[in-house]
Amino acid sequence: MTNNTKFIALTTANRHDLESLTPIHLPSPQTGQSTLYLHDNDHQHIYEVQRVTGVGRKTSWLIDDILYKDGTMRHITHVDPLFIALPILENARKESDDKFRILDDIFSFNQDENNLAYLLRLKGFQEQLTHLCDTQEVAQDMHVYRLNDQKALTWLQKKVDQLVPKFDTISLLKSSITEDLEKATTEEEKQDVYRQEATYLLSKYLNESWFTALLKHLGLKEIEVDQEMGDITNYFTGSTSTYFKASQTSTSNSTSAETGPPAKKRKPEVPRSLAKVNTRGMKSLTSFFQKKEK
């Protein structure tokens, strides 16, 4: 990042940790659009930068003697790379007519726009792929991979199950489903409310086909939602040169809805994360998934 344009982001990392971050482009798991992530060169992790916008809020930051005109809240948070890998594996399977492929082959396409090779450098990434793929050993220390839909849905269900208990510990999440819980007459219906809301939270990291498949896998129905004015979005979407330009506005080419008038109830063409939740100041979703499955 050579441009002098600056912004404010919150993170649990210290200054030394931030200096080890390198900007890289990877396809958004929801849209496939080339999106800027941050690669931790020291610990081999991937981070995303999320923008949290309030309802019609215009703010600025005053830190020491410097005024930052764009007062949007942003968070640098860890993201599970398997969300990014899922649509890549799906595309690789289609291109190879359902054949097994080596990882260098799977994660080598579209290199002009995306730095997919960085995924292979992540600590434990290849081992984690067994949550999504069938594997075969074709030679000593050489394996081939092919996406297995059932494994992927089982992994996504684990993510839902990890998120459900958070509703009782985070008041903002609990308040988003209070009305639906009051309408539930059985314990099973209440659990469906939790799981349905958790699935919609995960929709930020899923394209439409995987979102629909997950709902079906869990026996849940798609619901009509109110599109909120505030939202959490991936901030670095599209060209970095487009954003890091002098006098750039506080918005960028985003995959999620921007601030505007409230929409009528409708079924979204592409699922929007947190569509039912007032997300102002909420922690990143992926921060709940720091611990990887063994």
Automatic annotation (TrEMBL):
Signal sequence region: none
Q: Which GO terms describe its cellular component?
A: nucleoplasm; ribonuclease H2 complex
Q: What does this protein do?
A: Non catalytic subunit of RNase H2, an endonuclease that specifically degrades the RNA of RNA:DNA hybrids. Participates in DNA replication, possibly by mediating the removal of lagging-strand Okazaki fragment RNA primers during DNA replication. Mediates the excision of single ribonucleotides from DNA:RNA duplexes.
Ranges for domain Ribonuclease H2 subunit B wHTH come to: 83-221
- Name of this protein: Ribonuclease H2 subunit B
What is the species listed in this Swiss-Prot or TrEMBL entry? Phascolomyces articulosus
Question: Which superkingdom?
Answer: Eukaryota
Q: Where is the composition biased (Polar residues)?
A: 284-294
Renumbered to this chain, region (Disordered) spans: 246-294
Q: Where is the Rnh202 triple barrel domain positioned along the sequence?
A: 20-80
Its annotated compartments are: Nucleus
Q: State the Pfam families in the record.
A: RNase_H2-Ydr279 (PF09468), Ydr279_N (PF17745)
Point to the regions of Low complexity compositional bias.
247-256
Kindly list the biological process annotations in GO that this record carries.
RNA catabolic process
Q: Which InterPro entries match?
A: RNase_H2_suB (IPR040456), RNase_H2_suB_wHTH (IPR019024), Rnh202_N (IPR041195)
For this UniProt record, the keywords arranged alphabetically read as follows: Nucleus
